[in-house]
Amino acid sequence: MNISDTPAWLIFPITVLIIGLMIELGFRLGFSVQRKTEDEKESSVSAVTASVLALLAFILAFTFGIVSDRYDARKALVREQAITISTAYARTDFLPDADRTEAQDMFRSYMDALLAAAEQENSDARPDLIAEMNQINTDLWAMGVEHARQDPGSEMIGLYMDSLNSMSDVQALRDAVALQAKIPNEIWIALYALILLAMVAIGYQTAIAKSRRSWTLLLLALSFSTVVALIAVLDNPDSRILHISQQPLIQVQESMTEEPAT
Known about the structure:
single chain, Methane Monooxygenase Hydroxylase, Chain G, domain 1, mainly alpha, 8 helices, 0% strand, rod-shaped
């Protein structure tokens, strides 16, 4: 299981709790050292804390950039898929009447499976829905190949086959970007490790500086937890917080059910 699949409402409080515990651990450690010796200097501790925080900020920015770009790619692929499906469906007019009706029925079934797979509640059934779409792609391609063999010089059939190929490519790309490409757990572990070290350093520095715990440390925990939860939301295609609209595909599906103009 990937950490990105964990709901944001669970990641946020857990991260707040972990950060709070690490700050408290660092504070107690620093208080213990400060009571035993006066050799620990605040300036050296501040330098180390600043370095760890800078490294943490870099990793957070790097990770956020990855998931942000991937989120934009998922939105763009929805639009591109709508265009390729609409084009391929329109080119079914190049087929003979009998096969045209059959092909258009398969396109409608394809759209039903595609939109069902995009629904969050169908995540468990998604592999079966994707397999159904792949089978429809295969059947459409086989039908087109049969007509291409019957009329090898037909430019119309060539255009239809090209649109089917584009539709298949976009589907494969969308499956890869939306379902397979996620932040590896190793990066999540490294990110949390840096957060823990940074929070311990902050608590330690607070104690060495002979400062009291204050509500500003809570703000720090909430701020970092918000960024971490946002990264998880952007990396999860099934998130209900930033769900990508399927409206372009819905419009294509609606156009398939409309009666042709006479």
